[in-house]
## 1
Amino acid sequence: MPKSELRLIKNALEYLPNTEISTVPRGTRGIYVLYKRRGKARADAHHYDLVYVGLASRSIASRLRSHKRTKGGLWTHFSCFEVWDNISDEEIAELEGLFRHLYRYDSRSNALNKQKGYKKLGEVRRRTESVWL
């Protein structure tokens, strides 16, 4: 497999139906995204609403299977982004936190999220505001 040109992301799959979870190798670490396909399926148009962003420090496939068992009706497709082996669990959590923070006020994007934002990023923002503004 050719080497990724990205510093954080090693491999990526996007907008796969939730019936394709088995394509994700066991033990894949990184970020995954759940979507709900909206509208009628047409060959020329795909529309997805983001439902959830999550992290997997051990196995994205396991997390997807768990979500399918417990919340399968809320999402139809997924994307996953494998991180390089040298990316720590803390760095994965920071990425997930950033993404959740970005869409925390989107009413359609929080169907599965209990954690609406990322506390550490809020602290950085407040510190930055006190210095920059």
## 2
Amino acid sequence: MMTKPNYWLLGTTSTFIFPILYSYRKKKYILCFSTVLALVGSLNYWKNPSITYNRNIDFITSRLSLISYVYFGYTTIYKLYPSMLGYFNLSMIYRLYYLSCKKYILNDSVWIYYHMLFHLYTTLSKIYVIYWV
């Protein structure tokens, strides 16, 4: 397990600032707060990635953010095509996360690229949901 900061993952996690600013501007404060929590939890973990309570905090905060976005997306986006694209985005987020975990377990160094894509795709998907809610 890594014990030094992973600057690539810190960088891609930092892109969460964009949905934070966008949701704040659109007065979607629950989405803003949930993304702040996810950002802080993730930055806290990737600054010293090891299996500790920081990892659990990252899991909890990222799951809370996911739940809030899925809830708001599901309950407020009623148009067919935006909803379909939202479901597609959710499946891509899951797929990228799954692949990064699988590659990590197999000790394949490509895992980091999947996880970076996961962070970036999550950022874009959050902005998409904020736009439609």
## 3
Amino acid sequence: MPRSKEKSEQIRIQSRAQILRAACQIFSERGYDGCKVADIAKRANMSQGNIYWYFSSKEEMLKSILADGFETLGTLMHKAATSQTTAHEKIDFLIRQYTAFGRELGDFTNIFLALLAQGGLERLRELGFDTVQIGTGYHQSVSAIFAQGQAEGFIRKDLDANMLTMFFFSFYNGMTMTYGKEWINLPIDEIYAAVLRLIGRITG
């Protein structure tokens, strides 16, 4: 009996996701330039021919991984910034969800930072990503949350919200660059407390 259209689409989606997971792991471990499509096929338990059925090149896989990661992060930041809640609740959501993103999609962050270190913004632009524009959107969302926190008396008002936003992203990027995946084993409550101290939460 031939497959239904729905079943075929489900298999296509699952196979594509399986390939991207394998590619993400390999790119993170060896670097984008340090692997071949054959390595990805082996990790995905597929033939190279099957890989090329879904992606025309290794670069197309990289672009898909980056696009998915940037979109996930953008959605997270936007949701945190636009929710009709207090700054305390927004910051709680932001820290916990951003930490979860790093733990679940740490390979994406490793790939992004490696590309940035090796080729700078120009290499990412060549791949079709304006990371300055993307980063500006992230920054604006988080800065707005911190500014609300200051207005509500949750964060110290003598600190610049833009500076605190830079501290926030540098904290996570620094852990990833220095410790790779080791940081994901840190207790979430300790990470949470460290970020709150970093952004000047008012206690008492």
